[in-house]
């Protein structure tokens, strides 16, 4: 997962405004976000093909349509990092969405 510089991995959160093709080209790891569509919660890993399908299936033409992105909690980020990063790399650099736009930064800092 991701690009390594020595033993350092560069990660971004799934809310970043970067095309998946660029993420793949740069070899970045992606920390997922949660998307709530109506009553359904799905994991977003910057899968550009999956999001329009999600919107069509759960939001288009629905009276109670509602969608929001929800950052992982501290413990969920910690679990993700332990499972996917710590076992393979000595260091990680995590680039996040602005702290003024999401709690992901504070959750990641706490993790």
Automatic annotation (TrEMBL):
Q: Which Pfam families match?
A: DegV (PF02645)
For this entry, the protein name equals DegV family EDD domain-containing protein
Q: Which organism is this protein's natural source? A: Streptomyces alkaliphilus
